[in-house]
Amino acid sequence: MFDSHCHFEPGVDAAGWIARARAAGLDGLLACGGSPEADEGARLAAGLAPGFALAAFGLDRDAADAVAGPADMAARMAALERTLLAERAAAVGEIGLDYSRGEDAAARARQRALFAAQLRLAAKLGLPCSIHSRGAEEDTVALLRENLSPELAAAGRAGSLHCFVGTAEFAAALAPLGLCFGLSGIVTFRNADALRAVVPLLPRDRILVETDSPWLAPVPLRGRPCEPAFAVHTARRVAELLGLPEREAFALFSANARRVFAAR
Ligand SMILES: [Zn+2]
């Protein structure tokens, strides 16, 4: 079992998260950045548990408005590249698009520019991405098509569409691009029948489980601050949906995550 997307936000009990994740049977996790605070958390986690906690660094959609133009974008990408290399990052992330909060056309364009620049950087470095997409399926697919590394795509390790709640059509557009599907605690929620219907249609070698800690605690822990150990509850539900024995499913999710994020 592997938590393919979580955030060691400031103030969380990082050592406790890691100890309880190991005790719950996890063999690794991807600590995602995206903001200065989340990047710092990813660094902290990787330092506490080298080899177990892998780190991702990036600039999420909230950073898009601060980019002052092409020269500033280039400087930010150069700084991110230095971080990714110096800290032996496992992935770029989280990055992506979010059109769910009333963004106007100009704000959406700024998000796309930042996302595309980081996809190109990931392709250059041969790194997978952890990707956020909300209300922006069409643009997400278009930018992935244009910018992902063909080699990583062919190997099925271009990255993860994190917190996947999409339709069968969105999944069918992403799978040929080498993307995996990060299933979060949402798959356990009472109102998630539509998502549960899509899960058995996903290619099995592309299914990942994630917590998105400290958010989205799965049933039966819903409402509590989420932590990586809770991935077990989500994984059990996904195993049921796939009709797989628990042990086999857990090994599958871990192998998939390692292929994508721990390949080097
Ligand atoms: Zn996240």
In terms of topology, how is this protein built?
Layout: E1 2-6, H1 14-23, E2 28-34, H2 36-48, E3 53-59, H3 70-86, E4 91-98, H4 105-125, E5 129-134, H5 137-147, H6 150-154, E6 159-161, H7 168-174, E7 179-183, H8 193-198, E8 207-209, H9 231-242, H10 246-261
Parallel strand pairs: 1-2, 2-3, 3-4, 4-5, 5-6, 6-7, 7-8
Helix pairs in contact: 4-5, 9-10
What characteristics describe this protein?
264 residues; alpha/beta; TIM Barrel; 8-stranded parallel sheet; 8 strands; 17% strand; binds zinc ion
What would you note in describing this structure?
The chain has about 260 residues and is an alpha/beta fold. The protein has one domain: TIM Barrel (Alpha-Beta Barrel), CATH 3.20.20. The protein has 10 helices and 8 strands. An 8-stranded parallel β-sheet has the order 1-2-3-4-5-6-7-8, sandwiched between helices. The radius of gyration is 17 Å and the shape is globular. The two termini are about 20 Å apart. Zinc ion binds near residues 5, 7, 94, 162 and 212.
Task: Give me a quick take on this structure.
The chain has 264 residues and is an alpha/beta fold. It contains 10 helices and 8 strands.
